[in-house]
Amino acid sequence: MQMCELCGKLTEKLYKVVIEGSEMNVCKECAKFGKSPKTYSRLGKKPIPTSGKTTTKKPVKRRRDLFDSLPILREDYGDLIREAREKMGLSIEELAKKLKMKSSTLQKFERYELEPNEKEIKILEKWLKISLTENAGEDSQFYSGESDEGFTLGDFIKIKK
């Protein structure tokens, strides 16, 4: 007797099926939840050409995304805050009094334990005369301006002004 990998039932015969991308040996009742490995493909169905002509796919020009212009917090924000504070010759407690913040909050910013919100970023940038943000589309190492994926959420959003 063999055990179904999905429900744990002991059975004489197991069926090999693909369930959510994983190949499993399951009983007859659980086999309905998957597809046969012979018909399943992670790549999907191949397009069937309708005519004898071969067409080349033109590169789609990506439209500007709403999120490309949003500022994001720099990765080295903690070091920037600490260096600017030390350059002004202030302790964490002195700077916290000037900014009307808790000194523990400033310590957490400097140690990367807490990210400042937009209001705190503006206050820090004003007092320390530094820039803690960068635009997402500029020099982000994870951002690629080209996309073959098609539409993004920004393509469907309409902003009311």
The top-level CATH class of the domain at 71-135 is Mainly Alpha
Give the terminus-to-terminus CA distance. Answer: 68 Å
Multimeric status of the protein: single chain
| Structural class computed from helices and strand pairing | alpha+beta
Task: Tell me the radius of gyration.
Answer: 28 Å
User: Which shape, going by the Cα principal axes?
Assistant: elongated
- CATH topology value of the domain at 71-135: 434 Repressor (Amino-terminal Domain)
In the CATH classification, which architecture of the domain at 71-135 applies? Orthogonal Bundle
Q: Could you give the count of β-strands?
A: 6
Spatial order of the strands in the main sheet? 1-2
Query: What value does the average pLDDT take?
Result: 80
Q: What is the CATH homologous superfamily assignment of the domain at 71-135?
A: lambda repressor-like DNA-binding domains
In which range does the helix fraction lie? Answer: 10-25%
Number of helices in the DSSP assignment? 4
- How would you sum up the major sheet? 2 strands, antiparallel
Low-confidence stretches: 138-145
Topology order in helix (H) and strand (E) letters: EEEEEHHHHE
DSSP strand content: 5-15%
Provide structural commentary.
The chain is an alpha+beta fold and 161 residues long. Among the domains are: 2-33, no CATH class; 71-135, lambda repressor-like DNA-binding domains (434 Repressor (Amino-terminal Domain)). The chain contains four helices and six strands, in the order βββββααααβ. A two-stranded antiparallel ribbon has the order 1-2. Helix 2 packs across helix 3. The chain is elongated. The model is unreliable at 138-145 (pLDDT under 50).
